[in-house]
Amino acid sequence: EAISRYIDVKQAQKSEKDRQASDKYNSSLGRRYCNGDKSTIPQIVAVLNGGNSKAISQLLDDLEQQEDTEGKSPLYLDPAIKDKLFKLLEKEQLESTIVQFTGYNRVDGYIPAFENRLVSGKSTDEDRIFFWLGYAGSEKAVDYGISQNNIWLIQNLDAYMDNAQEPVKQKLLRYAYGYLEKNPIKKTDIQDI
């Protein structure tokens, strides 16, 4: 009897704690926006303008789509938020965070924003940009990767081959064959794997 009451009390405490955590999460700025509260837009823009990496990361965690990336539809954000996010790609200390969030969530407009950042030659996160553009089958990324002889293009070859248009795939295959011709795989390379 006493053990049952103890278990009931502990379960009730856990349920209350879980409810409070859920309430706190759902009342956050990002979750309120995701739940349709457009009055949060100026506050979200202010956080993004503030440049505080920790606050921005927390905001992006709260804005994150909850479903899996497979078959994920784009995340449509208010233009003021989206424009500010893409502008933050230029901030070296935030670039990888913004690339991961906007790529993972397929934020509407991420493809041209990533392509522009990539070809600017100023990106500090080319590997992730190539990765996400691979899922978009970006010809601009392929052309840039080939012109720069960029290894990230080869390392993300499978994504580009799965998602690019046929002429882009042919361009990639020619590049890959040429790359392998210039950089043949040695027996020791395979043994190291």
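[next item in queue]
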Amino acid sequence: RAVLPAIVNAYYEDVPKDKIIIDKSRGWNNAHFLGDYSEYVDELPSIVFLYRPVEEIFKSFANLLDESHREDFYAKSLEPQSTIQVCVNQLLQALRFDSDCYRFVTYANFVENFTKEFADICTFFAIPDFSVDPERLSNFQKEPETTQGFKNLHRVRDGVSRQNIDIELPEHVLSFCHAANEQIELALNEVKR
């Protein structure tokens, strides 16, 4: 029971105890991991789960590719262990994981109601609300260009704004997106009860 907390404590040992750690690891949102982890620790981490409609995810990735590579991307993304499928499955698992450690926020709400959403996130983390200018936000911890094999995948634009990506997705991809969105919506409705 002491080993897992010791690993996490050792990883963050250089961080003063009064500081807030924002760890953007994609592994924390995995409900299976948290289920196992919760057996060994007294308190789960607080996790903000940003999500958006699945077709926006496809368009965002497709926008990083030359048009000639998009059909191959769509085919690979519909395979069970693709990045997009894993993200959708992790969101569904998190929605079904009975825990107050998650706060679910749509990208649309985060962008359109930034001040309110940011204040709600501060409340969720039990930290004092503080003023943030969304136009002055920037990414201080850049990731390598080659992560996931997409050039500019982790290029974060300064500020908070919504991209308008004008890409028409193939019908079979849209069909997958609609089915995934429907599952997500059903799971969200269960959480809200």
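[queue empty]
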